[in-house]
Each structure stands twice: as C-alpha cells, then as structure tokens.
Amino acid sequence: MLSAKNKTRPGRDKTLADIVLVDPLPRTLDLIMDPPTRARFERLGELVISEDRPMPDETVERLLPDTVLVIGQTALPKARLDRAPKLRAIFNVETNFLPNIDYAACQSRGIWVLSPASAFAAPVAEAALGMAIDLARGITTADRAMRAGTEAYGLAGNTETFRFAGSTVGLIGFGDLGREFRRLIMPFDNKVLVHDPWLPDEIIRRHHAEPVGLDDLLRRARVVLIFATVTSDNQGFLGAREFALIQPGSAVLLMSRAGVVDFPAFLDAVRRGHIRAATDVFPEEPVPADDPVRRIPGLLLSAHRTGGTEDALHAVGRMTVADAELILRGLPPQLCRRADPGIAERLRSKPIAIT
Amino acid sequence: MLSAKNKTRPGRDKTLADIVLVDPLPRTLDLIMDPPTRARFERLGELVISEDRPMPDETVERLLPDTVLVIGQTALPKARLDRAPKLRAIFNVETNFLPNIDYAACQSRGIWVLSPASAFAAPVAEAALGMAIDLARGITTADRAMRAGTEAYGLAGNTETFRFAGSTVGLIGFGDLGREFRRLIMPFDNKVLVHDPWLPDEIIRRHHAEPVGLDDLLRRARVVLIFATVTSDNQGFLGAREFALIQPGSAVLLMSRAGVVDFPAFLDAVRRGHIRAATDVFPEEPVPADDPVRRIPGLLLSAHRTGGTEDALHAVGRMTVADAELILRGLPPQLCRRADPGIAERLRSKPIAIT
Amino acid sequence: MLSAKNKTRPGRDKTLADIVLVDPLPRTLDLIMDPPTRARFERLGELVISEDRPMPDETVERLLPDTVLVIGQTALPKARLDRAPKLRAIFNVETNFLPNIDYAACQSRGIWVLSPASAFAAPVAEAALGMAIDLARGITTADRAMRAGTEAYGLAGNTETFRFAGSTVGLIGFGDLGREFRRLIMPFDNKVLVHDPWLPDEIIRRHHAEPVGLDDLLRRARVVLIFATVTSDNQGFLGAREFALIQPGSAVLLMSRAGVVDFPAFLDAVRRGHIRAATDVFPEEPVPADDPVRRIPGLLLSAHRTGGTEDALHAVGRMTVADAELILRGLPPQLCRRADPGIAERLRSKPIAIT
Amino acid sequence: MLSAKNKTRPGRDKTLADIVLVDPLPRTLDLIMDPPTRARFERLGELVISEDRPMPDETVERLLPDTVLVIGQTALPKARLDRAPKLRAIFNVETNFLPNIDYAACQSRGIWVLSPASAFAAPVAEAALGMAIDLARGITTADRAMRAGTEAYGLAGNTETFRFAGSTVGLIGFGDLGREFRRLIMPFDNKVLVHDPWLPDEIIRRHHAEPVGLDDLLRRARVVLIFATVTSDNQGFLGAREFALIQPGSAVLLMSRAGVVDFPAFLDAVRRGHIRAATDVFPEEPVPADDPVRRIPGLLLSAHRTGGTEDALHAVGRMTVADAELILRGLPPQLCRRADPGIAERLRSKPIAIT
C-alpha cells in the first residue's frame, strides 16, 4: 500500500531526505500523470505514495518533519503544519480546495496551497461550445425528429433555431473556464456580457467583454453560460426570478456546479418551454434511476462528464509537477491556482465521489 | 401574378426603362430580402416579378430587349441572349448554377453570371463545428444514454471520446464553406489538412492548412469534413475503399452533397462502428419514411437544414443587391461567385426541391 | 537574346508545341522565380524568353499561332489576339494593367488577363505598420533627437506622441493592401474606418471595419493610410481641402501612388506641422537630388522600396505559375487579380522604370 | 504639503477612520490617475497625501495604526508593519519592488505587496514592434539615406533588409511585456522562441512559442528581443560570447534594463556591423552629452521613453484602484503583480530618477 521511491539517491543522506507525500485519492498517479510527467515527478524527492486508501494518520505524522511537498488532499490543520518545517507547497489534485487545511497558517509560513484546477477549463469550454451550438441550431432535437420521422427540411427545419454567431452571449463567472470559452468563440463575433462580482471591470474588458450586472445579463443574453463556482454566498442564486428575466427561447447551459441554481426552478423553466437548456451537473450524482430529469424534452443531458477527459487529468499532473519544480527552485508557481485566504474558505464544492 | 414596380420614376421615359426581371422560384423575394434590402432592390430599375410560378416564356421574351438584370433561374440560351443587348448580369438566387444558361455566350458578351452561394457557408460551418464537437465528445450519445439510464460519469463517460481541440482535421473541398470552417476553428489549434484538386497549394497554405492528397487526408485526419461540390468528375468518389482508409473511431461529417459519397458504403462504415458520422444531406430528400438510415445508432441526422436559416437567405438577397448596384455603376461584383466557364458546366447539383 | 526551352520534349511534335511567350521586362525570370518555381514554370510548355529587351514584334507575330500563355507586358491589340487562337491567359508580371491590351476582346474570347499584384500587399502592409507606429510613437524623431543631444526621457519624451493601439485608423482604398494591413493590426484593437467607393459596405464590414465617406474618414481618423490606386477618376483627389479636414497631429501615410494626392498640398500640410507623414512614393522617381522634399522634418521618407522585397518578387512568379497550371487544366485562376473590363481601362499607373 | 481628504464622511468616527497613506513619488496622483479613477480612489478611505516630498517619517509613524492601504514607496520594515495592524495592501506605483519592505513579514501577515507593473507592457511592446519592423525593413536607415541623397529604389533599396513576417523571433524574458509582444505579432506568423528560466515550458507553449535555452535562441533567432528583468543572478548575462552567437545581420532590441547586457560588448557588436540594434535603456540615464553611443550608425536610439506614455501612467492608477477596491472587499487582487517572496529580493532595478 505504501511505497517509497528514490530511497537511494546517491549523495543524499537518508535522514536528510526531502519527502514528497503523495495522498491523491480520489485520483491516482496513473490517472493524472503520463509517463514523461511521472518521470519528472520522481525526480522531485523521496516519494511516499498512498493510493489505495487515504494515507494513514500515523504515516502522515511520521513523515511531516521531512516533507517538502504534499500532493493530495491530506488534512493539514495548524498542529500538523507546526510539525512540518520544511513544507513548501500543498497541491490539491482533486482540484477543489477543502476546509481541511489551515489556509491562514500556510500563508503566514509561506507555504503555497495550490490547485491545478484550470486543467479542466479546456475540455469543459469545448463541450460547452458544442452544446451551445446544439441548443441554438437544434442539432440534437433535429436528430430526434428525424429518428421519429417528424423532421422538416431547409428553412422549415429552422423555425425555432437561431444562429450562435452574432448572438449576445452572457457568461456568469469568468475564471479559467469563462476565459477559455470566450477565447474559443472569438471567431463568432458575439457580443459578450460577463457577470463576475469577484473581478474588476478592467479584467473583463481586456477579454473583449462587457462587465454587467446579473439582471442585465439575463435580460440581454440569448445564450447564458453558468460557469460560477459555489460559495457560501451564492448558493442557488439563480432561481425562478432570474430565469424569468431571460428572453423566451434563449439557451442556458449549466456547466459548473448544480448548487448555484435553484435546480427545480431551472427544470421548471425548461419544462414550460421558456428556455432550452443543457446541464453537465446535477444536485445528486449519480442521478437516481427514476429521476424525472431524464425525461425532459428540451434539456440536453450530460452526466458530469465534460471535464473528465484523459487529457485534462494528465494536465492536472503536468501542472502539478511543473509548479513543484519551480517551487523547489525557489520560484513562484505559474500554472496552478493559489488558495487565496478569504477565497478558499468561501468555496463550497463537494469533494468528488466519482472521477 | 406579375407586378411591375417603379413604373413612374420621374425623369425616365418608359420606353427607355431598364427592366429588372425577377424570376426567383423556388425562392421568393420575401424569403431572401429583409425590408432595407428590398428598398435598395427597388431602386435598381423597373422590377418585373414572377413569384408564384416561373415567369412565362412570352413575358420573358417581351422583356428581354430592355432587361439589364435577371434575378432568378430563367433559361437563357444563346437565342435569348441575342435578344437582350442591355443585359449586364444574371443572378442565380437558388445558388446553384444550372445548365440552362449559355455561359460561354455570356462571357463573350461581358454578362456577369453570378450566384450568392457563399451566403450559406456561415450557417453550415457553424453547424458543422457543433456536430464535429458532438461526435468527438459524444454529446448526443451521452444525452441518449442518460435518457436510457445507462450513463457513465466523469472519466468513465469518456472512454470513447476524444478532444476536438488538437485533433487533426481534414477538409475535403476548400471553397467558401471550408474556409469559413477553418476560420471558426482557429482557436482550437488543430492540424488542418485540405484536399481540393481545384486549388493551388499556395491558397491552402495561406489559410494555415496543409495541402494533401485524398488518401493522405483520410489516413491522417481524426475528423473528416466533406465539403466538396458534386461535379461530373467526382460523383461517389468517396466509397468503401476510402472509408476503409480512415482511422477507426474517427468522425466523418457529410455537409455538402450526398452525391460525392457512395452513400451505402458510407452508412455501412457507420453501422459497423468503423466511423462515427453526421450527415446533413441524403440521396433522396425528403428521406422516405421507412428508410433504415433513420435508425442507425452512430449517425447524427440532419434534414438538409444546416444552411436554411433566415439570416443566410437574407444574405442571398443582400449580396445580390449589393453586387447589382456595383455592376450598374460599371464596377465588378465583389460578393457573389462568378460562373467561370468550364466550371459551371461541370457542376451537377440538383435544383433544390425544398427551400 | 532569345532562348527556347524544352524544344525536344519527347512525344511532342514541334508543330504542335504549346508556346509560353515570356516577355517580362522590366522584370526578369531570375528576379521573380526561385528555383522550385522556375522548375514548375518550365513544365508549362515550350518557353520562348526575351529578357534583355522587349520581345521583337516579328518574334511575337511568329509565335502567336502556337502561344497558349503570355508572361509579360507584350502589346496585344485585337489584331494580334485574332492570330492567337490557342491563347488562354496573359500574365502581367510588372503587376500594373497597361492600356496595350484589348481587354474586351480578351473577355469575349475567354482569355484570362491576370496580374499577381497582391504579391506586394504583404511587404507594403508590414512596412506601413512599422511606419505608422513610428509616426505615432515618434521613433525616428526620437532617434534624431538623441543624436542631436536634445532627447527627453520618459513621459517628457512623449509630449507629442500617441498610442497606435486604440487609435482610430482610416484606410483609403481597401484592396489587397488595405485588407492585409487591417489583418496585421487586429491585435491593436483599433476602430477602423474604410473609404473605398468600388466596394459594397458588406465587404468592408466583414473585415471588422466601418464603411465611411471620405470626409468623415479624414475628420475622425488619427492615422490615415492612403492605399488607393490611381484611376482616371481620382487623380489628386486628396488635396488642400482634404488635408485640412484631418485632425492636427494625425499621421498620414502615402503608400500606393503619388498621383492620388496633390503632392504640394500634402507636403505643405506636413511643413506647417498640421500632420506628420510618411511617403513611399513621389511624383518623380528617382527624386531629383535637390528636391526640397528631402529636407522636410516631419516626413518619413522611403524611396519606393516597401514593396520591392525579394520575397514579394518571388511571390509574383509563384502566383503566376500556380494560376497558369490551373488554367492549363481548364480551371479558373485563384491567386492573380483579373483585369475586369471597365476597371483595367480606368487604371492610370505608370509603368515602373525601376524595379 | 500634506492633505487629508474625506475627513468628514458621514457616519464615520474620525478615530476609526481607515487611512489610505499616499506617498507616490516620483509619481504624483495627477500623473497616474485620470479624473474617473481619482474619484474612485477617493472613495477608498481617508486619503493622506504627500506628493511634493516623500512622506515624513513622523507622519508615517502617526498614521500607521489606522492605515489600511499604502500607495507608494514608503519604507516598511518589520518594526513599522508591527505598528500597522489594519494594513491590507501596499501598492508600489513606481512599479519596481524595492528592498525597503520586509516582504516575508508582509506575507506572514497576509498583507498584499503589489505593483501595477504590467501597465507598461502595452506601450513598450507596441514600440518594440515598430522598432523591430524598422530594423528588419531598414525604415530609419532609408529615411537617413534619402536625406543624404544616397537612397536606392525598389529591390536595390532592399539589399540589406529582411521581412519581419515569417522571421524567427527570440524573446529573452517572457513576463507581461514578452507576452504582450507575442500577442501583437500573431498575424505575422513568426516562429517564436522564448528563453525564460523562471517559467515552466508549459506556459511558454500555451502562447504558441517554443521554450529554448539561451544559446539556442541566439543562434536561431533573426530578431532578438531582450525583455528580461535585472536580478542578482543575471546582471550582464548577455555579453560578447552571446552576441557572437547571433547570426550576422540579425536585429537585437534591448527594451527592459541596460543591466542585463554587457553594454560595451553590445555596442561593439553593433559598431562592427555584426548586428543591427535598438535600445530604449542605457547604463547611465540621462546619457552624457558626449557619450559616443549617440553616434553609432546601426543603432536606433530611444531615451527610455517607450513606456512613459500617458495611457500607461493612467493604467498604473486604474489598476491600483481596482485592486484596492477588491482587497477592501476581502477579495484577492486581479491586476497587479504580487511581490512573491524570493523574487522581490532578487530584483535589482534602480529606482527611476526621471518619470
């Protein structure tokens, strides 16, 4: 269960070994590292790996005095940090900051707390664009119609469609995912509205987008993409009132976390035909077998799968290793997101149960 | 049925009237012109319009001596051209050059024969990108799985998917549609291969693509887009042999004309699971109610509807009017495609039966 | 002086030889073709080349019956065209259509008259951007100041500069050169105004520019680029009245032909400090040694050299050969500009004296 | 000399006032804030401003207990930080981190130390592109030749030039400036090499550039841009050996700090005609009146003025205010650079003497 690598690196006294504590569940190293990345990883220090179960407390306690890097979701309250004088960085490879770390204590000690969360931005943004075009142009709907023998050809097949190109697009949340999506749609010449209360207008304008209030976005956008993270402040902030502000026939895509919407109100707006929608996330996952969500006609369903691609998981490992290399050279990380105190505590993502 | 506009424009002698002969079926003016375009159109000359039936021969014959523009698909053999000394341009607004015009005679008289065919490139390219991402990422398939209760989450839901970004893309045919598609996918950083025997390599390279032979394209591309026009030379040029060259699991999208593929061989490659595919065109349209094509699992079906959007039809009118304005000022057209003799005769598109 | 290549190609009877008549002065083949292009060129037919003097009339007359392509500026009035039944295309490699061809007769015979003029767009646009940034940011001026010991540092060195990025840019003329310049400045996020009376607004808008009248452009643009061709209609159309409309301190770049401006009025506006300017063209070239234009302080001088780069000349040859290959295959040319009747006659470029 | 604003904001007890300590020399508020930014700034707290001299120590000491923000270059050793319990952030608006702050103490207290340094990236990158095209295409040189009556026309005027488009470009240093430059040259289709030992290869590749070692870059690039910051490690790292590696006739632009090059070796390479070059920085500024650098022919001179534009200075203020607003709302800054401990200490920029 527990393996130690590199024990015999020449010129290194065992008592001086720099430990890399690897506790990555629910990820495993094979999942997040391709062979070249794994090779780079093994050169970082003495790896101690627990992959079939979370690292036992006694192991963690024993290793802390020599640990320079933690790769995983190990609990690190102040008492443990006090026992880890050589610790330089903690990488959350499940990519959701959890409340099991004393972030303020890390900050005061200069310990980086990092997450390669942006690894998932590219595959999710790509799928979001596919789904947005699908909703605008009626792709899945037209396929179902043709299978049912009810298809209409040419212009008659476009009575309820609109062009994605040129439509006003509203992005709720403008982190890595929102920016990647904005980049992908540059050739489509959309007017892009962004609502993100954590960002200054300057940042939004730099990405050729207009910073707007939430209601303004909902009233103006023909395609609304929900990319916001769940925090203690914004749970269910998109409810019946907000969906009613959206223009009838608009497309709404829920790509980040189910918790930011009032899910029944969301489904109701779809069922009534007020909006057409796609969702990659659900309040309960796996979705119960008899959940009526499975049978709503105007809803494009995706089983929390747009981010879970092999390339994204490999990027998790590659970003982790690259930043760890920098940190061990005394340089700041460049690829992972930093757990800014004050932000990390607000995040309310549930740990993932399924990779 | 027949209406003449602008008859009384002041300062114009009726006998000198410049006739614009409008014979647009299967299109109608309402279909292809928004009100501002229609207003510009009416300023071009004396409009004589036949929209509920093709313009009767006797009307055509009577108008020819004063006709400066033909808007529509009126037959114009040499004998008629001989009787139309003022004729400056013929606009095919159905957007397929037909064999009912003497193209060489037009050329020798300096009569432009034009078609605003590129109006359809933008909506078809947009839908093609939506469908390409759909096939790569399994969007429609995942929706069906979730409706059937057989969905898989996260990485498990991606065992048969690949990222569109970064995949090698092969375009067969690189006219307006191919170039618009290439433009749309710029942010995805694909390697793009182009096969188009009518184009010099220089043009293809300018669009950041690699000119290749057909077999090379089929062997290397993970996403193959068939954008080629049917000509007398290339009917069914993509058959069993060609589909066999494609890597298993690749995506193939047929977006131009059914005639360029051996359709049964195409369907067979899909049925066997060798490729996943989408098609917007069929050998017979409407597709017969009992056609088994409606029930093939790995095929995304679209009832010849990706181009038939309102904005595309309005672009047909706008491009026609803008070029007509230039021609009447003695300038060359800028927006429509020219019927180059030698090319027009090779084209084998069937006239559209359904708009 | 006269050389015939490929005379002995096996399998070709001399009497059936397809002659490629090469009469390229003031260009030479070495100037316009790199070795791979030259090799392709020699495969087109039986080359007969006159490079040290224009091809003698008697040679031309003798070759016409078997000539399929003319590469050069040979006079081709109707009488000669009548004697050239196999002629398919004429390539003007000096890249200015001259009045020594009967364009209408070519059109009625289906003979392409072509010019690879766009070969020069890329180097001229690149230089124009360098010069525009130079004028906006005072680069050459600051270099001169530092050599004179009168430089100012930091903000004090920028009292008369402005950022090119974000400035309103006006393009007068929007052919190949204007479009290439527009493409190059995309990352600078300028508002771009275009005045081109030969183009429909639709084309201009497609390039993310606003079609405007000339006076409107002059009043609004902070950087004005003169890219217009001289025609019978527009000689000297930019005069004292027009320069007075431009905002004081704006930058004006004359990149196409001196004939489109009233040159004394242009210099006067610079001398008075009303505008800062750059010019690549002059009414008389070479410029007389004592021409006072050489001593105007606010004028960036360029001796008609922005287009004359080796890569541009090689592109002339490459575009010519590629289009000739297509034409001999019965396909329309794709790279060269066509001499549209009605346009070619209006052009008033002087033949170049210096390459 | 000292002014306090907002003293009477209703509902705020004077003893509880949140002080914004403003000590911006060598900048002044007028220099770095346009009126709308100034208005936002005044809403941040009780401004206490010293602009005609550095804030006197006694004033600083008196204000520290109530200070929430420091805007300026005030010395803040640990003893002062101990007396500033409410301090949330320090903004260096001269935009060079100085050794007068205890960075580690700031980090352990969660005090942001920030600099809006990227404000200068846009104007410097723009000027660098102008200068790079100038060197490649010989723009300033050709202007001088024409003034001297020694100009050459057309191709003869391009014997020593090369196209910037398509040339291999090497960037030494890839922070804000390098990335902005890379963005600006996207339309030129250059092969871009980057050497930056502080960055992982992953970051460089994301910007469509190839990470390379320094020697490799110098050997391969036709245009070399020196964008590196001076640190304790890299002073004079570009010397005679390095300049010798560069291909003859290449262009070298020194845009960041004179300290990174062995300046005499740099000038020698230019004097010998081995490279053509531009420099915006000098070892001593202002440059002495009789410095021979002023007379080197192949060197384009710029008096440390490419960054000192009004818009850049206004961006300094706007970025500062926008990030201060976020920080006072408990959010992390988004626009300014963070003084990562370990980096700030290595920086060796001299404070600016001239704005």
Polypeptide structure, described:
Helices cover 32% and strands 15% of the residues of chain A. Chain A is of the alpha/beta class and 355 residues long. Chain A has 2 domains: 151 residues, NAD(P)-binding Rossmann-like Domain (Rossmann fold); 182 residues, 3-Layer(aba) Sandwich (Rossmann fold), CATH 3.40.50.720. A 7-stranded mixed beta sheet of chain A has the order 1-3-2-4-5-6-14. In chain A, strands 9-8-7-10-11-12-13 form a 7-stranded parallel beta sheet, with helices on both faces. In chain A, helix 4 links the parallel strand 4 and strand 5. The C terminus of chain A is likely disordered. Chains in contact: A-B, A-D, B-C, C-D. Chains B and C meet through helix 5, helix 9 and helix 13 of B and helix 5, helix 9 and helix 13 of C.
